[in-house]
Amino acid sequence: MGLSSALINAGQALEVFSAGMQVAGNNIANSTTPGYVREVLQTAPSPTVAQGNVLIGGGVTATGVRQQINTFLQQQIQNATSDYQGALQQSNVYQQLETTMQALGGSSLSSQLNSFLGNISNVVNQPESTAQRNIAVQAGVQLAQGITSIRSQIDSQRTALDQQVSSLVSQANGLLDNISQLNSQIAAAEHSGQSGSDDGAARSQRYNDLTQLAQIIPIRTAQDNGGQIDVYTGSEHLVDGSGVQHLQTVTGSSHGMTVQNVVIQNSNMPISGSGGQLNGAIAGRDTILGGFVDNLDALTSNLIYQFNNVYSSGQGLHGYSSVTATNSVTSPTAALNAAGLPFTPTNGGFQVQVVNTTTGATQTTSIPVNLSGIGTATSLTSLAASLNSVANLSASISPAGQLTISAASGYQVEFSNDTSGTLASLGINTFFTGSNSSNIGVNAALAADPGLFAAAQGGGPGDGTNAAQLSQINTTPVAGLNGASLSDYYNGTVATISQAAASESALSTGNQGYLNALTNQQAQTSGVSIDAEAVQVMQYQHSYQAAARIISTLDQLFTTLMHL
C-alpha cells in the first residue's frame, strides 16, 4: 500500500504541476490582452492517510483557479474613471467654447464691437459723408453676423453633445445587458460559487464592461457569494443579479433648445453625481454652453435695445417716405407693455416730424404713450389713431401686427425724443433688428439706404450728436446687465469662462494622475509579469521533474518486487 500511495501522490502532483503550467501559460498568452486579470492555481494538501499508527500525507490537490484582483481597488478605479471622464468631457467643451469665442484673436466679438463703434465715431467727424455712414452700417452688419455666427457654432456644438448623450445612453444600455448576461454565465459556470474556480474569461470581460460603463456614468458595484455583481448608480440599481434597469432619454428643453435628458427607466430619476461622459456631456450642453448662450443673449438683447433706444430718437440725411416696424404685437388692442414685444416700452412718448421735401418746413407733433397704469393704456391701435391724426401722416397695422407709418406725397417723416422706448420696442427708425443672439441683424431699409443713418439730433445733415452718443454705448452702464456696461459684461463673461476652463483642465489632469496611480497599483496585483510567470513555470517544471523522478523510482521498486 505504501508504494501504491506514493505512486498516486506523485501522479496527482504531475496533474497539479501540469495544470499550474497551463495556468501560467494562459497568463503569458494574455499578457497583452486589455483588461485581463492574472489567474493563479489554488492548491491544498490532500487528506492525510493513516497507515497503522503513522499518518501519511495524501499529496496535493488543485482546489481551483482564482483571479488575483483587489475588489476595493477596482471600485476606486471605477470611481476615478468616472471622475476623470466627466472632467475631461467638460474641459473639452470649454476648449471648444474658447476657440469659438476667439477671445485672443483679432476677430473676437469684443474687437468687432469696438470696430463698429469706432466707425460710428468716424461718422461724428464726417456726418455729411454718405460713404462713412455706409462703412458704419456695414460694420454693424459684420458685428451682427459675428454674433449670429458664434451663436450658430454654439448651437451646433450643443446639438452634437445632445446626439452624444443619446449615443452614450445606447452604449450604457448595451454594457448593462452584457454585464447581466455575464452574471448568468458566470453563475452557471462556477455553479453559483461552489466550483472553487473563477470563470476568468467571463469575469475579465465583465470587469472590462464595468470599466467602460464607469467611463459613461458613475457606478457602484457589489458582488455576492455566487459570483454575480450588482451595479448601482447613486441609490438606483441598474443590474440586480441577471435583472437590468436601463437608462432612457426623455425630451426636454434647455436654454432655448430641445434636448434629450436622461432618466433611469423605472424610477424616472436622473443620473446622480457629476462623473462620467454622460454627465459631462449634459453639463457641457446645458450648463457650460447653455449658460454662455444666456450670457450672449443678455449681451445681444441689451445691445439691440440700448443702441436702438438712442438711435431711434435721431435723424438721418433725410427722412422716411414710409417705415414699417420690424417687431410685431400679439394683439393690436393690448397695452403695448403687454403686447408680446421683445422689448417692453414704458410710460412716456415720442415726437414725429413731418417734413415738406420742397420747402423744408417741419411740423413736430408729440405722441403720448400712456403706460402709467392710470387711465386707458396705449395700444398699437390707439397709437396708430394718434399718428393718423397728424397732418400728412397715416398709420396702419398689418395682419401680422406690424405698424406702418407713411408720409403723404411730397413729405417725409422723422422721429425724435422718445422717452418711452416705444420706437425701439416696435422697431421703428431702428438700426438693429431681432431680439437675441440668434436673430440679430441690421434694418434692411438702413442697409439699402445708409443716408437714413440717424446721426443727428435735430441739427440737420451736419449734426453728429446722436452718433457721438451711440459711439459711447459700449461703456454706458446698462440696467439690464446689473449696471455693467456692454464692454464690462462681455469681458467679465470671457474672464469667467477662462477661469472655469483652467479649473476644469486642472481637475481633469489631477483626476488622470490619480487614475494612473490606481491603475499602476492594480497592475502590480492583477497584471501579468512575463518574468514572474517565467519563474513560476520553472518552479512547476522542477516540481514536475521531481514528481516524475519519484514515479521512475517507484517503477524500479515495483520491478524489483516483481522479480523477487
Walk me through the structure.
The protein has 564 residues and is α+β, with helices and mostly antiparallel strands. Among the domains are: 2-68 and 530-562; 70-303 and 476-526. It is 51% helix and 16% strand. The protein has twelve helices and 18 strands. The strands form seven sheets. The protein has a four-stranded antiparallel β-sheet with strand order 5-6-7-8, covered by helices on one side.
Structural class, from helix and strand content?
A: alpha+beta
- Globular, elongated, flat, extended or rod-shaped: what is the shape? rod-shaped
Helix count from the secondary structure assignment: 12
* Rg measurement, Å: 40 Å
Main-sheet strand order equals 5-6-7-8
- Biggest sheet statistics: 4 strands, antiparallel
Q: Report how far apart the termini are.
A: 17 Å
Number of strands: 18
Strand % is 15-25%
Helix fraction, binned, reads: 40-55%
- In the predicted model, the low-confidence regions spanning at least 5 consecutive residues are none
Order of helices and strands: HEEEEHHHHEEEEEEHEEEHEEEHEEHHHH
The overall pLDDT, averaged over residues, is 93
Sum up the structure in keywords.
single chain, 564 residues, alpha+beta, four-stranded antiparallel sheet, three-stranded antiparallel sheet, 12 helices, rod-shaped
What is the topological layout?
Elements: H1 2-29, E1 39-45, E2 49-51, E3 54-56, E4 60-67, H2 71-101, H3 109-125, H4 130-189, H5 200-216, E5 220-223, E6 229-233, E7 236-240, E8 243-244, E9 247-254, E10 257-264, H6 276-311, E11 322-324, E12 348-356, E13 362-369, H7 380-388, E14 393-397, E15 403-407, E16 411-416, H8 422-426, E17 432-433, E18 441-442, H9 444-448, H10 465-471, H11 486-526, H12 530-562
Antiparallel strand pairs: 1-4, 2-3, 5-6, 6-7, 7-8, 9-10, 11-15, 12-13, 12-16, 14-15, 17-18
Helix pairs in contact: 1-12, 2-4, 2-5, 2-6, 2-11, 3-4, 3-10, 4-5, 4-6, 6-11
